[in-house]
Every structure is written in structure tokens, then in C-alpha cells.
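Question thread 4412

I'm putting together a teaching handout and wanted feedback from people who do this every day. The idea is simple: show students a protein as raw sequence, then show them the C-alpha cells that encode its fold, then repeat with a second protein so they can compare. Below is the first pair exactly as I plan to print it.
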Amino acid sequence: MDFYLILKPEIMKKFPCSGSDVLIFILVIVYSLVFNAGNKAFSQVNLKDSTTTPYCVPQMDAEDYLYMILKKPVPVKCDTDMNHSLGPFLSPFPYPGYALVTGYLVGFATNISFYTYHSDSAKISSLLFDNAYTQLHQLFSILNSNIFTKQETFNFLGDWRFYQFPTTTYGLGSKTTFADATSVDYNYLRFYEAAMRAVNNNFFAGIGYNIDYHYNIKEIKVPGADETDIEKYTFVNGNNTIGNKTLSSGVSINLQYDSRLNSNNPKGGAYANLKIRDNIIALGSNSNWQSLLLDARKYFLTNKNSGNVLAFWNYDWLTLGGKPPYFDLPTIGSDAYDNTGRAYVEGRFKGLNMLYNEVEYRFRILNNGLLGGVVFINASAFTNYPSNKFDKVNPGYGLGLRIKLNKSSDTNLCFDYAIGTGGSSGFAFNLNEVF
């Protein structure tokens, strides 16, 4: 999950970059070094995708670097040994931070990766836990899972989360501004789980069940203020059609192609997931509505010696029919790992339909893999309401630093800075690559 410090002009006056920002950055690195020092599951193997060539330079991660600081011998082994451990490989990461949507926060994220069998072509499975509490009394707990059974016969995808989340919404469409901001408060439960069976080489098909439950919804509005997009969307003839809670419950058809071996940090291959979801009143939904989500990614290894990668991401989220609840509409930063739209705070743009594309170039700074960097550019578009037409594209671009936390699972700690339109810019922190 990404955390942003969005720098509006008036915010910059209140929160200028200072020594405290540098201190937080240093603390993050120290935490990663200390917590990974005790991880006994590390091995000397650099896990690769099918398109990579074994590196002749021994690879390093935060644990190895700590050995060097302590002047202890670092176990060195050329990363051509494919008889790797099944794991689990742990990457715990406590973090302090600040974001416009949360204020100051403290959190703890953990990646657990493992294999279900020994093979050069085995796909890695992973669990990502993320928990945080913020200055604005927000609490969230997230579990993302991508589990393969032996021989990749089945693949289970999960996204479970709980939010207690006073926050801000900006209305519908791509033309909204900070002046359109409205304060809201709600609790949120999400349960997405899909079970897919392999039908051919790298192809999977299956079904899923999906619940989005928002409750204790409150819109905090100044008396006499103009009608907000929430009211325009949810009120009919002056009556609130949702009350203080909404429920979307439905089954989905899931089709997937995945030729990556390591979803934590792909070095090649492709991924595509098509999800068609049907929410129906019979399963408890407030209304009948349907959606389509297409998540497609492609990775090109540009240099076999360096391991540099050019990555492409397309993420389209469309409403096929019916009227989803306001908080279940396609939203920037509300994908499974909350990574779309670097440069924009989560929830900055929302609409009945969303189109999103991103390109990122990933390169090594050190040949031993400890440090790397990225440059990226993205673009998003949302339909306005009630016209339901696309009329503006919002770009974002930036660069980032990568620190190898665990070379066994190829898990990176990611620091990014991105710039968008309308005064949006900010830092993003992530565990694992953004896509």
C-alpha cells in the first residue's frame, strides 16, 4: 500500500521539507536493517523469472549489509544455484510516516513469500500484511494473498481489509479540484476471494465472491454549503437512498494469465486478470449492478547482465450496468494493493468508469542488487457524472529508490516521489514493486 505526502501550496507552508523528513527516512532504513537481521529464512539465491540470466555478481540485501557494518563475514555464493529453499521468506517492516489523507502514522507491514514445491519453474506465493494507525484516528488492517498450490494446479487470490477511516472525497470525474473536497467518515469491510484452476500453461479460470460493506457513513458538511457530488449521486427527490451504510455482494468470473515466476519483483513475463462481477440484491446488495476489471502487465528484460526491466501496466475498471454505491465506484488508489495513481492521494479521483496506464523503467544502481532506482509516468481518466463521459486525463510522473530487503523473495523497499496536476505531488512508500 502506498502512503503519500501530498504537497499543496498551502500545505507546503505548514509542512516544509525539514530535518525531520530526513530523520524519518533514516529511521526507515535502520528499521529495515534491524528487523531483517534476525530473519533466518534468507538464502543466497536470487530468484529469477523465466527470461533472466543468472548473475555472476553475488547479490546483497539489507541483512548482508548489516553483516558488513558489524564487520562479520558475509556468506557469499554466486546466484546460479536453483536448489532454493521453499521458505518462508520474511520481510517485516515497521514504518513511521506522514500523508495528507492520514496525518502522521505508525504502521507495520510484512511480506511472507514461499514456494509449494521444488522446481526452476515454480511460481512464488506471497502474503502481504499491512496495519497502521494514524494521527486522524484512522485504523486500517489489510491482508493481500496470492497463493499457488503444488504444480500451480490452483491459484487463490485474496484481498481482505478493515478500515476505520475519516477522510476526504473530492467528487466525481477527472476535473475535480481541492476546492471540491468534502469530509466523510465511515467503517469499511472488504472480502474478495477468488479460486482459479489451471486450464493450460499459465492460464487459469475460476470464480470468486466479493463483499464491500461501508457502514457508519457520515458526510461532514458546513451548513449552507453547495450540494456535493455525494448528494447528487445518492439523493433522489431529496431523499438519501443509502442511509448510513451500503453493501455490495456478488460473485465474479475470473480469468487469468500469469507467466511471471516472482510477482514480488517480476523480471519478465506477463500478467492479465479479467474479473466480471455481478452484485445482486439476492446476495444482500443494496442494488443490482455489474462491473468489469482488467488488470494487464508486461515486463521486458532490457539487459540480461544488469537485470534492468521496462514494465507496462494497464488497469481498467468499468461499470457495465446498474448504479454502484458511491464508495464502491472506481477510484484512484483503490486497486488490490492501492498503487494506482502515484502523485495523487487515495480517493482523489472517482467515477463510474476508470482508465489507467503506467510505464516504469527499473534499473540497478549497485551491481550487487542492494540499491536500485525507477522512473515512471502514469495517466488516468474518469467519467464525469451524470454525463458519464471522459473529458480529461490526469498524468503523474516521478522517480524512486529501491532497497533490497530480502533477496530470497526479491522483496524491495520502495521510496517514490511523484508529481501530478492541480498542485498534487508527494512521496510514496511501498513494500514490493508497485506492479
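The second pair follows. I'd like the answer to focus on this one:
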Amino acid sequence: MATRTSPRSRPGKGTKSAPRVQHDRSVYRERLAAAARAAQSAVSSGGHFLVTDPLDVGYLTGFLGGDSFLLLAGKQTTIISDGRFAEELEAFKSVCRVHIRTNPMFDAVGEVVARTGVKALGIQADHLTLARRGFLARKCKGVKLVETAGILAGLRVVKDFTEIEKLLKAISIQEEALESALDQLGVLLRKKKAVTEAHFAAILEFEMKMRGSPEPGFGTIAGSGPNASLPHYRAGPAPIARGVPLLIDWGATFDGYHGDMTRVVCFGKWPAKLARVYEIVREAHELAAANLANGRSGKEIDGIAREHITAAGYGAQFSHSLGHGIGLQIHEDPRLSHMGAPTELQEGMVVTIEPGIYLPGVGGVRLENDYLITKGGARNLCTLPMDIKWATRR
């Protein structure tokens, strides 16, 4: 059963810019040790591994500047970066060595690899392009390149306390921002001011930035009326009006971590058909969330929501998977989907639940929250209500 996060227990409340979450660097040393063990068991390279995905570099070290590689070579861990980040990387020397290159990246990798005596090197084949693999091979002559995939994804899929804290910060920011943006929208509509979807999206993104989110996790979706039938609609020039539901899918970021939520609101009276659809989607969401638990499969949870929507006569109008993992990426493992092989949910995973019904020419309803899988159920990391009373604005 899903439990709900209390707003009072949430870090980062208030309208001032939220401070960065500070943590002991030991969490990154632990992640590096786990990555070395995973590389050791996955490749015959003595645990030597080149991390080229900037999000994985950030996960393992806390450095999110980008344009940097990370070499795991036994107990020697080295970030390879350039002079733009030299000052910033001083703070990371307690976690790993820092090599500031003055030459092209793959030349620098070759130098560091030669210095560490690496004979075989695991590479991220699911990130490194064929062209870049060729550059690496030419600069690391005599070193066997071992292609791997998913080694670090397996570590990132289960969140630790520091990651959950950052996700809570991001969610808190975006919830406060939405309430403020909706209040402003209500004032504009009561004054009969023209407001477009793009205008509202800009207000919402501004409010997130003012609360400590450096950028939105993705382009804000604000679909008015029939535009809400497009699941990944992009906010445009369509006007927002009273009596016309507005679908909002938005996300804040905090220290690289992404929140992801969806609500549908209507200023004034709801169209009868969409009001009924709203209740069906809400019920499907709550049924699925109540069944989240360690050991259940994502496919099974998807089926619970899908069966409810199908029984109501809208199965064909639920056109996407039920949910996905969130973290350093807005979409990451695990997947809660009716397509593909079942994925077993594990304690510590954070997933979205987002059933939807989309009616071309009419509109759409999707309701999305973020949940932490626990031993006996799940914890709802979001606090905004989903009932239609809350969604009916003045």
C-alpha cells in the first residue's frame, strides 16, 4: 500500500532558493567501490573500467559538470577533465584523483591508462559511439577494450538516502511552483487576460527556477482542451480558457535529480465527459499505487491500472506504459510496462505511476506521482492532491 509524504516532513519548503544538499563524500567512495566490484565481475579487465557517460560520472563522484571521463583502475580512480573545471574539481580530490588535460580527451585517456598500467579496459558500449571507440583504441594501443552494457545502470536503479533526499527536494520545488503558477493563472483568467499554453509554461518554469531548480527536467507540457489528447504535446500558442481542462506535465531538477508529475485542472465547470474520465484515471492510479511493493513486477502493476481503464471502456485510449524510474534521468529503469519482459520491483527504486486516457478532438487526462518502493509497499513522494475538487480551480 502506498503511504503519503507529509508536507511538513519535506525538505526545502518556502519560496527562497533551496540550498544544495550537502553530504559526506563517503557516499561517493562507497559508490566507486561498488562500481569497481561490478566491473570486476562483469569484465575480465581486473576491474579497470572507463566511464564516459557524464551522468554515471556524476553518480559515482558527485561531479555533474560534464565533459569529463572517469577511469576506475583498481584502487586508483581518476577524473579526466579540462581547465574549465579545475577549480570546481578541487573539492573532489578527497574522492578521486583529478587529471586536468591540456590535450584532446582521448590522448589524455591514453596517457592516464598507460600510467596506471591497465592491460584490459571495460568500456560503456551503450554510450560510446563507434567513432569514439575507434579513437580510444588508437590512443590505447596494446590495451584490450572490453565492451559492457548496463553495469552502472544496475547500481543506479536502487536509490540511496542521499538520492531520495534530492528527489524530495525537486518534487517539493515543483509542487510549490505549480500552486503559485495556478494562482497566477486564475488571476489572469478572472481579469479576462489572454493566456496561452506557452505563457503558462513559462510562468511555471520561472517559479521552479526561483525555488532552486536550475532548469526544468524536460520541456513543460501544458495542453489545453483537445491538445491534451497528445501525450507528449509541446506547449504552444493555444489559449487557456475557463471551462476547458488543462493538462500539465512538469518536472523540476535538484542537484541533477528529476521530479516528474502530471495534473489536470479546470477553471470553472468541467465538461461532463472529461470529469468522468478524470475519475476513472484517478481510480486506476490509486489501484496501481496501492499494489506497489518489493517483489511485484512492473508488468503486473501496469496490468492493474490497464484492466481498470479497459473495464471502463477506454482501454484503447490508454496508449503508453504506466510508469518508469526517475533519478539523474527523467526516464530510467525500471519500466512499468505491458510491453517487454517483466521487471521485478526492488526496495529503494523510485518510479512514476501515470495512467492516462486520451480522446482525440476532446482532450485527455493523465495523473502522475512519484513513488519510493519499500519492503511492504510504497511511499508517495508527492503531496499535491489528485481529487477533482482540488483540480477544480476558481
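Top answer:
Good format. For the second protein you could add a caption like this: The chain has two domains: 26-156, 161-393. The CA atoms of residues 137 and 145 lie 7 Å apart.
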